[in-house]
Amino acid sequence: MMKIGILTSGGDAPGMNAAIRAIVRTALYHDCQVFGIKRGFGGLLNGEIVPMNSRAVSDILQRGGTILQSARCPEFNTPEGRQKAKEQLVELGLKGLIVIGGDGTFRGAQVINEMGFQTVGIPATIDNDIGCTDFSIGFDTTVNTVLDAMNKIRDTAFSHDRVYVVEVMGKKSGFIAVSAGLTGGAEAILVPEVSFDLDEICSQLKRSAAVGKAHSIILVAEGLNGDPKEVEKSSGFVVGDYIRKHTGCDTRITVLGHIQRGGTPSFFDRRLGTLMGNKAVELILDGATEKMVGFTNNQIQISDINKAIKTKKTIDFSELELAHVMAGL
Ligand code: F6P
Fold first, then answer.
1. Would the CB of 126 count as within 6 Å of ligand 1?
2. Catalytic: 127?
3. pLDDT range class, residue 116, cuts 50, 70, 90
4. Per-residue pLDDT at 72
5. Torsion over CA: 103, 42, 260, 274 (sign)
6. Which of 89, 93, 27, 77 has its CA nearest to residue 57?
7. Domain ranges of the chain
8. Which of 141, 191, 261 to mutate to test the pocket of ligand 1 (most atoms within 8 A of CB)?
9. Would you state the pLDDT for residue 55?
10. Is CATH 3.40.50.460 what the domain over 142-261 is classified as, yes or no?
């Protein structure tokens, strides 16, 4: 009986559970045995590995996060850590491993592949910054969460004639900011990929106020000033404080933070997880390795993981332009 392992690694993303469910049920349908590896690569080298049956994935489709849990594991980058991981894989007799996560997760998959095990990757990150796929699991739900927050903020911004600077996640990319900004009616969108002039934004806010539009939402990507984990002051506060100082507008700053990662997955992410999970098992059964299951032009597309890691995915600059036109300023 063929044995397949699954792990989720890196930041969790809504829809990961749909992928886990699809992998387990597809594998069982094909008479394979499935093992869930807990807490990412750390669980692999520590032997936190559990057999999964069909019931193990009941009632999880609607849940955000990942039932297998996730972690970042520095030990996996050491020769000793890798040796431990290999011993676990050999002991279990796993044929293939399906990893669900972002580019760091895919780099881990390559290491496992070099050890002689088949690996297939499923892109899951709210940042949507993985190459060779239009969508990663979790992005759609996150954008909807941001839209919900923007709607609520808009109510109070209007009521008090205020400027709100709203900071969204995305690490060093602006996918969340552009998609939510375009569809949530942001008056300005600031992303790391495009240079901007804060003085021009201040002038624009003053012009708007002068013609009677005193409330605005400025959507700011967290990675404006580099890696968000390394900066001293978050992008939202840098931009918000500048606007407050240079416009005199009543300005508030909201950092949406980790609420963007949780919550029940959208239709789109459940479907993506289900289609990708199913395909990943089929690839393992076909003997494929180092492949990533992507979703491009509204259909499943297979690429080399290596290519996905090396491909720099860029935001749609025309959507950013369009958002500016739609702001009507
Ligand atoms: O990669 C997903 C993500 O949510 C980024 O948008 C964010 O910068 C980062 O993870 C936050 O990481 P952590 O949960 O470790 O604080």
1. yes
2. yes
3. very high
4. 84
5. positive
6. 27
7. 3-138+265-310, 142-261
8. 261
9. 98
10. yes
